[in-house]
Amino acid sequence: MRRKDLCLLMFVCFIWALNVVVGKLVLSGMHVPPFYYAGIRFVLVALVLSPLLWPLPRPFGPIVAIGFLMGAAHFGLLFLGLTASTPSSAAIVLQLGIPLTTLLSVLFLGERMSLMRVVGMLVALLGVLVVIWNPAEARFSIGLIAVAGSAAALACGSILLKRFGPIKPLRLQAWVSCVSALPLAIASALLEQQQWTASLAGGWAFWAALAFSVLVVTIWAHTAYFSILQRYEANLIVPLTLAMPIMTMFLGLTITGDHFDMRTLIGTAGALVGVAIVLRAPPGAPTKTAAAAD
């Protein structure tokens, strides 16, 4: 891998990590409602990328489902979870999406999974459960359960996208944003209050955070990641993105003062080791149908 591309990928991971911390500051520090924040973000992305909405993708129904899962459900639940969790723990729980995607690919795409990948999934799941569990109150963190739901929504959307077929990254972002704006607006109208007041109270810092999320994270970072992914094998690129939760932990400790105890450390190590096993293990023997098609 070229050094230039490696540095670019690490910068993308840093942008993603910073976005989680910025989201936490907006949601908890400025008290901006989560569904409103996610919704206005997608409205702005849809406006910027509106020329890419035409012509309509065919078939149209699946792109609506993909857009809802990868947009409204994923980010709505993520921002909701960040209101009651730390950026560090949220970044770890989000890694649950990798083994979930692997499992769903077996169930719905007919892919095979080796024993090593099964072991990796179980290790990752156990690590995430350790991070989510709050022994002081003998319950699971509500915020991190929402983040786990966010990871599951992204995993489901990714499987649907694989079945849909290739689509240009910016065109996908345009449709994800267009589909997600309305359901998030409805959720905000029904469940939240004083959205505009919170925006005005946040001042320039809120609008700067929103611009960062729209322009830098959604439009630039995701596009840069997809461009790198197209130049190299996925089994090389995806493991390197494990730098993102590690960067988030350091940013959370230094910026938002995240609490990081031995339980969280053990759970984090377990989750990352499990995800690494899933990514590096052989996929398993192909099905007879797939082998015949080859």
Describe this structure in words.
The chain is mainly α. It has one domain (3-283). The chain is 79% helix and 1% strand. It is built from 13 helices and two strands; from the N terminus they run ααααααββααααααα. A two-stranded antiparallel ribbon has the order 1-2. α2 (34-48) packs across α9 and α6 packs antiparallel against α12. The protein is globular. The model is unreliable at 285-294 (pLDDT under 50).
Key descriptive features of the protein:
disordered C terminus; mainly alpha; globular; two-stranded antiparallel sheet; 79% helix; 13 helices; 294 residues
SSE blueprint:
Blueprint: H1 3-29, H2 34-48, H3 60-82, H4 87-94, H5 97-109, H6 115-132, E1 133-134, E2 139-140, H7 142-164, H8 169-191, H9 195-231, H10 234-240, H11 243-256, H12 262-280, H13 288-293
Antiparallel strand pairs: 1-2
